[in-house]
Specification:
Blueprint (H helix, E strand, L loop, with lengths): L1 H32 E9 L5 E9 L6 E8 L19 H6 L2 E6 L28 H15 L3 E10 L1 H8 L8 E7 L12 E2 L2 E2 L1 H11 L23 H8 L3 H8 L4 H8 L5 H4 L13 E7 L6 H14 L6 E6 L13 E2 L2 E2 L4 H19 L9 E5 L4 E5 L7 E8 L5 E2 L10 E6 L25 H4 L5 E4 L7 E15 L5 E9 L20 E10 L18 E14 L4 E7 L27 E6 L7 E7 L2
Parallel strand pairs: 3-4, 3-5, 5-6, 6-9, 9-10, 10-13
Antiparallel strand pairs: 1-2, 2-4, 7-8, 11-12, 13-14, 15-16, 15-25, 17-24, 18-23, 19-22, 19-24, 19-25, 20-21, 20-23
Length: 627
Amino acid sequence: MKKLLLLSGIVIWCTCTLAQSQSSQDSAYIRQNYTKMEKYITMRDGKRLFTSIYLPKDQSKKYPILMTRTPYNVGPYGENEYKKTLGQNMLLARDGFIFVYQDVRGRWMSEGDFVDVRPDIENKKGDSETDESSDTYDTIDWLIKNLPNNNGKVGIEGISYPGFYSTASLPNAHPALKAVSPQAPVTEWFIGDDFHHNGALFVMDAFAFITNFGVPRPQPITPAQFKNGIKYKESDNYKFYLDLGALPNYKKHYFGDSVKFWDNMMAHPNYDSFWQGMNIRPHLKNITPATMVVGGFFDAEDAFGAQQVFKALEKQNPASHPNMLVLGPWFHGGWERGDGQFFGDQDFGSKTSAWFRENVELPFFKFYLKDEGEMALPKATIFVSGSNEWHKFNEWPPKNTVEKTLYFHSNGKLSFDAEKTGTSSFDEYVSDPNSPVPYQDGVQGRRSREYMLDDQRFAGRRPDVKVYQTDTLNEDITLTGPVIADLFSSTTGTDADYVVKLIDVFPDNYPEPKPNPKNVTMAGYEMLVRGEIFRGKYRNSFEKPEPFVPGKVTEVKYHLPDVAHTFRKGHRIMIQVQNSWFPLADRNPQRFEDIYHAKDSDFQKATIRIYHDDATPSNVKVTVLEQ
């Protein structure tokens, strides 16, 4: 054991040392090869946006412009203060682009008022009506007219919130905008990204984000001058959020009247015009720039956004529009960090992130912005975990698939054949919101990113988690595409959340990794492939919630984000069903009400039944790739 720990320590030390050395080399390269300038660019309504520009020192040729617009600050500020890297990966910087970073309207050093996920104005009535599309247009227009040695072509990239600004650049794009890559883009804050999933508030992420980002700035200001984040201590997130109680306590104890977006959320518990206006997808039509949407299957924040932006672009634009999708085995932004071979307890067998940066991202921008190379990328470049292989598809989801149904059975069985019984068959258990099911084993401070593919054995041991699994598989089964949960359930309450998890159960003789510094037991490992929650009162409409009738069997059917995973021969497929996922999602009082204004005394136990008979066959539909 001492030798193993020593070896592990040496590996970590070597990795850190190499990373520090590479960082130092990158920083030196940028100073040696780029000149920085800072400008205020005036928008059509007179507001000025702070913009940081890095120009190649070699002025013997013309360069395209690669821009990122961000609410997180373009720092460091000062024309002699340089970023340590440029672009989302240094291959771009070494290839030669003009790099532009801009504080979006109302953030940090830019003028104007900030609006979260600012709605797109489709038919503007003069220069006083602005949105992110018009701000991007005005910025590009200034850049191509004023930056020396630019070739008249512009690309935009961004991850997460900057991914939203990438998407928002597409409607009514400037003619010079030729290539856009929304990566894990914030897209839908009520249905599937960040703040909510299917109407359930992702309270841990929302609280952590808003306590800093949501605090208003008094004036244009740099991060060094801004000291007003809300402080709190969260050494055990399960205990912290359980002790904090109902949602009104958050405002009482932490936010007061300082955080506008929290107040806005609490005033809009359903999918009304406030949330609908933030949805950029209906505006993604008549798009002219080439697009490459990038996302991670194990992205804890915006897996939904990447998949849905791509699908909206495909549906609302002609087939001739160059639109590509890349999905890999990555956490949020993981394709631009590290080499991408390992995440959590999983080894994906190759350097997936490094491969993407060299073989996908760089060629995309070189082709559309420099007219270099060939566009050999397929419609969808997809990494299939389990078999750990890259696949190229002409569309996503791919055509050569068949939908199959995994039916729940009595005694915890799961099968592609429906259970045949003429009588009512169900599993019954008690869901207690005062003892909710944790989202991950162990004790964490902040939300971990590894929960997206972590071992689920801890959950299956609880009496309020129902487990269904297949027999040992006799052949590989590869799923590529949608996963649809179709539950038939009853509750003694009038509301309920449902969490469905698709899990890969490793065989009991699965070999242990060597070395194994984390001392993880992979034999019998239950890898989460996909999990998703649904707030039951929205089963028929996100706009108009409906109570459950106590004791009445009710269908709850919803989509989980797409998957690409091979369940290998000798493994099993497992489904877990539960009614809380805490503190990832806020607790449901299990009574029909506005949860944003619930009291601590409102949370009540409920008896849940999951039915699996001829008339009410609870199941999960999957899309199986035909070999």
